[in-house]
TrEMBL record, chain A:
InterPro entries in the cross-refs: ScpA
Lineage, broadest ranks: Bacteria, Pseudomonadati, Pseudomonadota, Alphaproteobacteria, Rhodobacterales
PANTHER family linked: SEGREGATION AND CONDENSATION PROTEIN A
Cross-referenced Pfam families: SMC_ScpA
UniProt source species: Allosediminivita pacifica
Protein name, UniProt field: Segregation and condensation protein A
TrEMBL record, chains B, C:
Biased amino acid composition, Acidic residues: 1-17
Name under which the protein is recorded: Condensin subunit ScpB
Statement: the UniProt record of this protein carries the keyword Cytoplasm: yes
Location of the region described as Disordered in the Swiss-Prot/TrEMBL record: 1-25, 195-228
GO biological process terms on file: cell division; chromosome separation
Pfam families: SMC_ScpB (PF04079)
Lineage: superkingdom: Bacteria
Length: 267, 228, 228
C-alpha cells in the first residue's frame, strides 16, 4: 500500500460531500505515529483550542476514519483498532446517562484525560520544534576548529625523606664499628687450624709446656690475632684431652695453662 | 618546574591554605591560563578540571568570570554548559561558517520528539515516553540518542520494576547552546499549564500498544537494555 | 561565492567608494567575523579566504591587524602561518596543555647513599664517594641525582687530575626542609636519635653486586663523565 494507491482510491470513491472531511484522512496510516497522533491530527480539523475540543466529535471523526479505512481495505494496525473500540465505548458513555451501578471513571473523566493527552502531545511537538529551531552547535555556532590536545605525560618523581638520607649515611659510616660482628678471616685463627697444628706437635710434648708456645708464628704481636689464636689453641687442647691424647693443668687461677702428651696408653 | 612538582601537594594544601608555599599567579595571568585551556579544547571543560591544571592557589571560577566579561560582544563567546565552560563562536556569525558546517544526521520525527520529551520531563522512563507519545518507543530511536550522547541513563525510578530513566547530557546542552536543562524554551509555561505532570491514566483508557519497531525490539532483547 | 567573484571589483570600489552598493560593516564587526572564522577553522586561513566569506567591502587584512593587537599578551595569540592566519595558545602556557600523571617512587639505595655522602661531605669527588661507600658509583646514579636537581657540579678540586666535585642544590635543601647542608645531624646525634640501624649488612660482595648499574657504567665508560 502506497500513498498514491490510497489517495487514488479515495479520490475515486469519495463523494463530494465527504471530500472536505476526507482531505484530513487522505494519508496512509503509516504516516501517523500511532492512534494518538492520528487523533491529534483529526483534532486540529476542529480548529479550536485543544482545551475546548469536543471529544465526542473527535471520537466520531476517528471512527469515521476507521470506517473509511475499512472501506478502502486499508489494513489498520491493531492499536488503531483498539483505540477505535475504546472511542466507541467512550462515545456511548458520553451519550448515555450515567449508570449508577457502573464503577470506574465517568465518560467525562475519560474524555478529559484524552484531551489532556492530546494537549500534552501537542505541547511536546511544539517544544521539539522550538528546540530544533534553536541555534545549534556546528550549524549556528562553532567549537574550536583546531583543538589542541592535552598531552598525557607520565612523570616519575623520586622521593626520599630526610630520615632515609640520614639512615643511609649512618649505615655507611657505621659499617666499621660493627667489625666484631663481621668474620674477618685474616685475623681469625680457627680451632680446626689450631688442632691441625697441635696434632703435628703433640708427639714431641713429653713434658708440661705452656700452651702459649703452640701459638703460630707472628700471632702474638697483634692483640686481636693473639686473642684469636690463644682461644683456638685452648679449644684445640681441650679437644685433644677429650680424645685422650693430652693432659692439661693449671697451677692456680690466671697461671699459665700447661699441656703434655698423655703417656698412659703407651705404658 | 617546582610548581609542577608541588601539584599533588597543592591539592592537599587547598584544605589548609595557610601552608601554601607558592603565591598564586595574578588574576590576569590566571585569566590567560583559563583562556588558553578553553581555547585549546573543543569540548567543555569544568572549572574543577581547569583548576587542576593550573598552578597552586589559582581560582578558576573567578578567572572565568573575568574571561566571560572580556569576551562579551566578541566573535567568540565564553559559554556555560552545565558544570563546564566552553568557547563558542557567536551565533549571529553562523552565516560566515558555511564551510565549517558538518552535515548532522537527520533525526527522525520520532527521535526528535523522544529527545524533547526526555529533555522536558527528565528523568523519564521509557513507559512515560510511550504514554506521552501514544506509541511504543523503538529501541533504535533511543539507541540513536544514546549514541549521539545527547541522552544518557539516569537513576532508576524507585517504583516496582525499578525502571531506568533517561536524562539529557551536557553535550545535548552544548549542542543547543543551553547553560542548563532549566533554560529549555517554554519550560516554565509548560510546567504552569500542568503539561509536565505525569497524570495517571484513568482505568480503561487505552495503553500505547506495541508498534512494529517495538516488537522487533522485544525480539532482539530490549529487556537487556531497559529492564536491568 | 559571489563575494569571491566581486573581490577585484571591491578593490576597484575602494578607489571609487561611491560605486559600492553595500556599506561594509564597521571594523569592529569585521574583527569579530575574522575572530570567529579563525577560531572555528580547522586549519590556518588566508586573509583572502577570510575576505571571500565576509560581506562585500570588508577588509580582512585590516581586521587581522586589529585582532592581532587585541590578542597581544592574552592566553591565545593570532599567529601567521605562511600566508595564512591561525589562533594558537600562547607558547608560555604550553605547560597547561599537558596533563601529567605523577608516579612517586622511592630512590634506590645506591642513589640515597650517594646523595647522603654528597650532602655530608660536599664538595666531594666521585673517587671520595666511592671510597666512603666502598663500591663504585654508577653513572646512572649520579645522572639521576643531577637530573632531579638535588645535586650539581661544584668547583674542581685543585689536585692532580682536577676532579670535579659534587654539591647539593637549593632544591635539595627545599625538599628535605633544610636551611643548610651543615644542619644535617652528625653521627653522634643520629645515634642518639636511634637512627642507626642495629645490624648493617656485612661488607663486601652482596652490596657491590647490588649496585649493578655500577658495573654497567664501568663498561660503558663512566670515565667520560667524571674524569674530564
Amino acid at each position: 500500500m502506497t500513498d498514491e494507491d490510497a489517495s487514488d482510491n479515495v479520490t475515486a470513491l469519495s463523494t463530494v460531500a465527504d471530500r472536505l472531511e476526507a482531505e484530513a484522512l487522505v494519508v496512509d496510516v503509516d504516516g501517523y505515529e500511532g492512534p494518538l497522533d492520528l487523533l491529534l491530527t483529526l483534532a486540529r480539523t476542529q480548529k479550536v483550542d485543544l482545551r475546548k475540543i469536543s471529544v465526542l466529535g473527535l471520537a466520531q471523526q476517528y471512527l469515521a476514519f476507521v470506517e473509511k479505512a475499512k472501506e478502502l481495505r486499508i489494513e489498520l494496525a491493531a492499536d488503531y483498532l483498539v483505540m477505535a473500540a475504546w472511542l466507541a465505548f467512550l462515545k456511548s458513555r458520553l451519550l448515555l446517562p450515567p449508570d449508577p451501578e457502573e464503577e470506574g471513571p465517568s465518560g467525562e473523566e475519560l474524555a478529559a484525560h484524552l484531551a489532556f493527552q492530546l494537549e500534552r502531545l501537542q505541547a511536546m511537538r511544539q517544544a521539539a520544534a522550538q528546540l530544533m529551531g534553536r541555534d545549534q552547535l556546528g550549524r549556528n555556532f562553532f567549537a574550536r576548529g583546531q583543538p589542541e590536545s592535552v598531552q598525557q605525560k607520565k612523570r616519575v618523581v623520586y622521593s626520599a625523606t630526610l630520615l632515609d638520607l640520614m639512615q643511609a649515611y649512618a649505615r655507611i659510616r657505621t659499617r666499621d664499628e660493627f667489625r666484631p660482628f663481621v668474620m674477618d678471616r685474616d685475623k681469625v685463627f680457627t680451632m680446626e687450624e689450631a688442632l691441625d697444628r697441635m696434632r703435628g706437635m703433640i708427639g714431641f710434648a713429653g713434658t708440661w709446656t705452656d700452651i702459649q708456645s703452640y701459638l703460630p708464628d707472628g700471632w702474638d704481636e697483634d692483640p686481636v690475632k693473639w686473642r684469636s689464636a690463644t682461644a683456638a689453641t685452648f679449644a684445640a687442647s681441650l679437644e685433644l684431652v677429650k680424645e685422650g691424647k693430652a693432659e692439661l693443668r693449671q697451677s692456680e687461677i690466671f697461671a699459665p695453662i700447661e699441656l703434655r702428651r698423655r703417656e698412659d696408653r703407651r705404658d | 618546574m617546582t610548581e609542577d612538582d608541588e601539584q599533588p601537594q597543592a591539592e592537599a594544601a587547598d584544605e589548609t591554605p595557610g601552608e601554601s608555599l607558592f603565591e598564586a599567579p595574578p588574576m590576569g595571568e590566571q585569566e590567560r591560563m583559563v583562556e588558553a585551556m578553553l581555547f585549546a579544547a573543543s569540548e567543555p571543560v569544568t572549572s574543577r578540571e581547569l583548576e587542576a591544571r593550573m598552578p597552586h592557589g589559582c581560582d578558576a571560577a573567578e578567572a572565568l568570570v573575568h574571561l566571560r566579561k572580556r569576551y562579551e560582544g566578541r566573535g567568540v563567546h565564553l559559554v556555560r554548559v552545565g558544570e563546564a565552560w566552553a568557547m563558542r563562536t557567536a551565533p549571529d556569525l553562523g552565516f560566515l561558517m558555511t564551510r565549517e558546517t558538518v552535515e548532522t544526521r537527520k533525526l527522525s520525527r520520532a527521535a526528535i520528539e523522544t529527545l524533547a520529551i526526555i529533555a522536558y520531563h527528565q528523568p523519564v522512563t521509557r513507559a512515560e515516553i510511550e504514554e506521552i507519545r501514544g506509541v511504543s518507543v523503538s529501541r533504535g530511536t533511543v539507541d540513536q540518542l544514546l549514541e549521539m550522547e545527547w541522552v544518557r541513563f539516569g537513576r532508576r525510578r524507585m517504583t516496582p520494576g525499578r525502571p531506568v530513566t533517561f536524562v539529557v547530557t551536557e553535550s545535548f546542552l552544548d549542542h543547543f547552546g543551553l547553560e542548563n536543562a532549566r533554560d529549555l524554551p517554554g519550560l516554565a509555561e509548560l510546567r504552569a499549564a500542568g503539561l509536565l505532570e505525569s497524570r495517571p491514566r484513568p482505568e480503561g483508557a487505552p495503553e500505547a500498544s506495541e508498534d512494529e519497531d517495538a516488537e522487533e525490539a522485544v525480539q532482539t532483547g530490549q529487556s537487556e537494555l531497559f529492564e536491568d
